[in-house]
Amino acid sequence: MPYTGRFAPSPTGALHAGSLVAALASWLDARAHHGRWLVRIEDVDTPRCVPGAARTILQQLTDCGLVPDEAPVYQSQRGALYQQALDQLIARGLAYPCACTRLDIARALAASGHPHQRHGELVYPGTCRHGLNGRAARAWRFLTAEYESNRPLAQADSTQSAIESIANLNPAADTEVIWYDRLLGPQMQNVSRDVGDFVLKRADGFWAYQLAVVADDAAQGVTDIVRGQDLADNTARQILLQRALGLPLPRYLHTPLVLGANGEKLSKQNGAQPLDTRDPLAVLRQAGLALGLADRISASTSADWLQQAVGLWAGRHLEPAH
To answer: Which Pfam families does this UniProt record tie to the protein (predicted)?
Structure first.
């Protein structure tokens, strides 16, 4: 299948130095493979989006010579695609409604002797797997249960019977997803233990990131996902969804993060400044440092810098995919 890569920023503000590293890496990988490079604006979490940020991001990318091969798409306009994916999971008994609040989950974990760690994952304990007990549904969750991903589950006669069929699946005590990262090497995560049944559609009606990104990548024919290492933890959940929906599995490469002065990931939340792209060569050189490229490039224009960077990237990252 021809290579297709993508950069998928959330328009919660302008690009900063860290997000440009992810954009540059995905662009370089696509160009090194002579493939397509797409931009998807991940504005599905509408309350967090900043007016005008998407336009600013696209202009920053253009300033740096990172121009997508097709017009950008916007997640906020693709709800029908996500609903179709959710309906498919419901029909197969792999999604169920949930009435729990975060406080409910925290209390359930504490009562079971597994209190929530402040900065850890709020692991869902499966409270609503077998029914809502008269409570109103707030969200939809994916069932992390053992099933044969290469054998379709029986089609349910109705949504209700699909929900009831969940009781016939065994929760996976060891749902371990093993995958290969082109930079980090072999990876593994036990989704049931580390995450639990994760959200597909939120209580506020907005689509969850995991379902939206999987549906979008499949619809756009994305073969290779190149993104920051902070998103590596999402990969196992996305692979479970890809298998459950019968979708192709893309290859993954997670790039090093740019850290702030406090040693944490550079982000808008910890004060990362918007990227000034009036001197694109300077910002590309800075991004290249994080990717281990800048010390071997001598260029007087951003176009020359990008051309040399593609060659260096090809020499490092075109090993056979696993």
So the answer is: tRNA-synt_1c
